[in-house]
Amino acid sequence: MSEVTPGQRLPERVIGPVSKTDIIRYQGASGDFHPLHHDEEFARSAGFPGVFAVGMLHAGYLATYCVEQFGAQNVRRFQVRFREQVWPGDTLICSGAVSSVTARDNGDLLTLDLAVTRRTGGVAATAVVDVLRPRVEG
Amino acid sequence: MAQFIAETEQDVCVSEFTMTVELGKLREFARATGYTAGPILEEPHPVIHPTFLTSMVFWQPPEAKLPHEYLGFAEHRILHGEQEYIFGDLPIRAGDVLSVRVRLLPIIVKRGRRGGEMTFGTAVTDFRNPAGRIVAQAKTTIIETEDAP
To answer: Is B90 in CB contact (< 8 Å) with chain A?
Structure first.
């Protein structure tokens, strides 16, 4: 990405279909072992049709989406809001746009508005992210 | 740019512990969140994935309660509303040892769209480097609804 302007859309990334294995892999990686996300009987007794993804899993997909484009060392803020549940079998689409560009001493601070959307449903989560785009000397 | 949230006298500290950022755990976490290639999988001290600090729960002392347990929120009526991470200019890398302090902000009660009460609990976690400088902060907002969501 050479020139960055407010309103510029980011290339989309498709993830999934999200499997039960993906969900339990995330639970093991993150330490959130809530049975709602892997124990079918527990999920049904809590009033759900079955297990669903941990919200921080698709938040994690959005964070990876940022890191791939801007680099982990440049992320300064990552704020995610949860909207709709993600179910096993869902294909997710990460998308977003640059909402503002602010010049700083060491480069530009970009604010991004991102969303992870279920192909067969609505927006699962949205994120506001600040990334630094260092000034390239030369 | 987002500023770190300062601690106030109204905050309640619920746990303090040390966390080591482990390369293997960071790689496992990256793979679990769709990362397929790049510095995290190739370098010995890569900068952390932005949501990796959620794995701090592995380092919490066994007797520590989760924020919603401390707040007394009913488990079947809670929603994870929002999660935020703020990072300073010193990146956190695999191998770093961090001091972690979890504190609860005063709760806020609001009236929801359908007239029911919603209680907002916010936990702020400060991550400090060995020099005592805050290098990252996490803010978790959980909502207790009046009826099951």
So the answer is: no
Confidence (pTM) = 0.94
Smallest CA–CA distance from A83 into chain B, residue: B81
Q: Which residue of A has its CA nearest to B22?
A: A29
Predicted confidence at residue B70, as pLDDT, reads: 82
Query: For A47-94, how does the pLDDT look when each residue is reduced to its tens digit (9 = 90+)?
Result: 899 999 999 999 999 999 999 999 999 999 999 999 999 999 999 999
Distance between CA atoms of B72 and B75, rounded to whole angstroms? 9
Which of B2, B28, B91 lies at the smallest CB-CB distance from A73? B91
Strands (E), B1-149: 12-20, 78-87, 97-104, 108-111, 117-128, 134-145
pLDDT digits (tens, 9 = 90+) for A15-41: 999 999 999 999 999 999 999 999 999
Q: Give the torsion through C-alpha atoms of B24, B45, A72, A14, to 10 deg.
A: -40
- Asked whether the beta carbons of residue A60 and residue B51 sit closer than 8 angstroms, the reply is yes
CB of B55 within 8 A of CB of B28?
Answer: no
ipTM field: 0.95
Question: For residue B57, which residues of chain A lie inside 8 Å, CB to CB?
Answer: 30-32
Compute the distance between CA of residue A90 and CA of residue A59 in angstroms, rounded to an integer. Answer: 15
Does residue B51 belong to the interface with chain A, where contact is any CB pair within 8 Å?
A: yes
A-chain CB neighbours of B34 within 8 Å are 15, 60-61, 64-65
Distance CA A108, CA A131 (A): 8
